[in-house]
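User: Could you go from structure to sequence for me? I need the amino acid at each position, not a summary. Structure tokens:
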């Protein structure tokens, strides 16, 4: 069954798009399922066949995993899955179009795009590889993504002769809009660390209260040695099983007035507590206050975001026509719509 689809759509932009924008303008969007490795429906679960090329559940899942690692996942799981599948379909069609014209994207162009992508994200290709490896993704997956995007861009360039560009005025308008976002305003925070002395007490254990009392005594010993947050480790030395949390940055406007009063009264040289909590005994260390100023996006990143938005609209126009002429057969409509 031939299915008409549209690559056109509107996507709500977030601040994370600023990071990805540099990637896209470097020639990287989303990747193609394994070329030449035909997978049977019983092996991988084919979602759709595009001009005899299957796209499987695994193809979509792997791409979504890569998008997440690159920090470009936006929308609900259903929306991300649909967009990813649409992109994979476009890439299959684009590769077929390029093949008809005898166009081949070589390693040199892929390497060049990877270098621009890394530079735009303030890292190196080796840095990208390390990041992906930590997330269980191979560099070959990213290379496939870059190659697929280059094919797609070649097709768009052949079909759409209008040059994609943005003016300084457009950049300035978007920059002002982004920098007025409340999330970029300075935030006053209280820095807090929790000091836990775990106690496993059975409700029916007659010695439970004694165990809690013993831990409270140990907590008091820590409090006597405490001279500030930087001394938490040394003050806890010699006490069994003490868990010190990382610094918690609590927005001042979210903290109850009474708690702020208690923190200020204790100051940064005394521990608050001990107190009974579900997991045992706890004390609170107040490490002072700070004003956090989120970094403003560079104008170059804003420009890249705008270029990417225009490019996506252009892609939608071109691919809408090419998809009409392609054979697109959904094998698992339920999976596309619900997963």
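Assistant: Here is the amino acid at each position, in order:
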């Amino acid at each position: 069954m031939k299915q008409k689809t549209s690559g056109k759509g509107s996507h709500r932009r977030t601040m994370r798009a600023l990071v990805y924008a540099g990637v896209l303008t470097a020639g990287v969007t989303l990747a193609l399922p394994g070329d030449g490795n035909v997978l049977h429906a019983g092996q991988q679960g084919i979602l759709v066949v595009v001009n005899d090329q299957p796209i499987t559940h695994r193809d979509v899942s792997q791409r979504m995993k890569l998008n997440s690692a690159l920090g470009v996942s936006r929308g609900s799981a259903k929306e991300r899955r649909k967009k990813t599948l649409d992109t994979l379909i476009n890439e299959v069609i684009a590769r077929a179009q390029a093949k008809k014209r005898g166009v081949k994207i070589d390693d040199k162009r892929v390497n060049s795009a990877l270098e621009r992508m890394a530079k735009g994200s303030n890292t190196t290709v080796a840095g990208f590889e390390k990041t992906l490896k930590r997330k269980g993704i191979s560099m070959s997956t990213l290379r496939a993504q870059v190659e697929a995007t280059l094919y797609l861009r070649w097709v768009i360039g052949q079909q759409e002769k209008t040059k994609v560009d943005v003016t300084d005025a457009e950049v300035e308008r978007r920059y002002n809009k982004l920098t007025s976002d409340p999330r970029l305003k300075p935030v006053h925070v209280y820095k807090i660390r929790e000091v836990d002395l775990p106690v496993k007490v059975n409700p029916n254990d007659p010695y439970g209260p004694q165990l809690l009392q013993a831990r409270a005594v140990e907590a008091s010993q820590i409090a006597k040695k405490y001279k500030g947050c930087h001394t938490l480790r040394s003050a806890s030395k010699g006490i069994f099983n003490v868990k010190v949390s990382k610094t918690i940055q609590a927005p001042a406007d979210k903290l109850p007035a009474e708690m702020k009063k208690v923190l200020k009264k204790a100051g940064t040289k005394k521990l608050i507590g001990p107190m009974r909590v579900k997991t045992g005994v706890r004390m609170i260390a107040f490490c002072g206050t700070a004003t956090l100023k989120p970094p403003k996006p560079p104008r170059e990143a804003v420009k890249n975001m705008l270029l990417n938005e225009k490019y996506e609209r252009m892609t939608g126009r071109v691919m809408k026509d090419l998809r009409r002429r392609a054979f697109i057969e959904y094998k698992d409509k339920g999976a596309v719509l619900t997963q």
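One structural detail worth keeping in mind: The mean pLDDT is 82.
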